Amino acid sequence: MTNCLAYCAHEAHADLTPLRIERRALRDDDVAIQIAYCGVCHSDLHFAHNDWGSTVFPCVPGHEIVGHVTSVGSAVSRYRVGDQVAVGCLVDSCQQCAACEQGEESYCEKGMTPTYNGRDRQSGAVTQGGYAQHIVVREKFVLRVPEALDLRYTGPLLCAGITVWEPLRTHGIKQGSRVAVVGLGGLGHMGVKLAVALGAEVTVITTSPGKADDARALGAHHVLLSTEPAAMKGAASSFDLILDTIPRKHNVNPYLMLLARNGKLALVGALEPLEPIHGALLAFNNRSISGSLMGGLAQTQELLEFCAEHQVLPNCEMIRMQDINSAFERMEKNDVKYRFVIDMASLSDVQVD
Ligand code: NAP
Ligand code: ZN
Questions:
Q1: 7 and 152: one domain?
Q2: Domain boundary among 291, 315, 336
Q3: Last residue of a domain, one of 291, 314, 338
Q4: Which of 12, 28, 56, 129 could form a disulfide with 62 if both were Cys (CB 3.0 to 4.6 A apart)?
């Protein structure tokens, strides 16, 4: 075992503070990674605040991890010391069920192991995430970062990116598809960039009038204020796919109304009960709602290659690890443009007893 410095939530709503944590000794198929950068996802904030009631404290969040390999187990064949690698939202799964066999590990029938707040399948220890100097991960769950990707901007692809890429691919978004993205935050801004890169006509639906210029700069063709009923009415039945990234309970009916015939609303933000849905809105136009959870390993690797080739990168604000609590506060106030990324080198300035 080795230990390293991390930032940790000790109870709901308390500040994250530094702590030394243990990383397991390398198993044969393990890769040890020195973390260079870690993105800050709204899910990190949900877990730190125990919004979903399932947080096991102490909890080290972080599942948008990039860094370099520092050592490998004896059976590791795909990675060598020094390689530029990434780890996303999951670090293990059963590898035997139909979902795992089909490369949809996030839907593992035995339950995938999340990067943090999960249980290691062998030792039962609680998994701890990427707000740390190092991590040890099973080779299969380590992704290769193409040379053409700048590591500083790669972290957010591992969750924000793949979470919107999955529905864009599942629903066959291509040249001319009409896509709306609800909520211009971490997930939303990647949804805009990726849908534009796939050739879609993209509309941002936002509660923030001040984000209209940014939306266009990100590539969106249209901007709609969800707070303006007339504008919403004017866009009725006009989208093939809506990516709904709103991070809390909300009313989806005003968005369902915007779906064209056979349109889909992909709900990826609010993983909690919603306001009641009006069935007629689904029946008319044969609309449907789907949800999705991150994406599988192959699809995440595909996304990394796509982003390298098309140079699709998130807009990041780099922060020090010591600034995570104010970053969480700003995220709650909807003040992120558009993803915080922690520079883990800042941990070398932190002292703990
Ligand atoms: P974020 O950066 O905070 O962005 C969320 C955006 O939603 C905000 O920028 C805001 O955009 C809009 N919004 C916020 N509160 C709203 C409200 N009450 N009503 C309407 N719109 C509101 O968050 P994120 O990191 O993108 O994450 C979004 C959600 O996805 C979180 O709940 C997270 O836990 C979840 N998530 C799910 C998965 C999955 O696998 N399904 C993966 C990652 C994250 P505007 O200012 O444009 O309105
Ligand atoms: Zn996330």
A1: yes
A2: 291
A3: 291
A4: 129
Closest CA to 186 of 294, 64, 340: 340
Amino acid at residue number 99: A
* Ligand 1 atom showing the smallest separation from residue 187 Cα: 26
Mean pLDDT, rounded, of the chain: 97
User: CB within 6 Å of ligand 1 — which residues?
Assistant: 41-43, 46, 159-160, 163, 183-188, 206-208, 211, 245-248, 250, 268-269, 293-294, 331, 334, 336
How far apart CA 161 and CA 312 sit, in angstroms, is: 10
- If one counts the domains in the chain, the total is 2
Q: What is the mean pLDDT of the segment spanning 196-215?
A: 98
At residue 353, does pLDDT exceed 80?
no
Same domain, 123 and 16: yes
Strands 65-72 and 30-40: antiparallel
**How far does the centroid of ligand 2 lie from the alpha carbon of residue 44, in Å?**
7
Domain that holds residue 16: 2-159+295-349
Q: Does one domain contain both 110 and 169?
A: no
CA 41 to ligand 1 centroid distance, Å = 9
Q: Both tokens of residue 287?
A: 């609309």
Atom of ligand 1 nearest to the CA of 43: 34
pLDDT in tens, 284-304: 999 999 999 999 999 999 999
- What is the predicted pLDDT for the residue at 351? 84
How much is the pTM?
Answer: 0.97
Per-residue pLDDT tens digits for 308-328: 999 999 999 999 999 999 999
152 and 15 belong to one structural domain: yes
Is the domain of 254 the same as that of 345? Answer: no
Ligand 2 center from residue 125 Cα (angstroms):
21
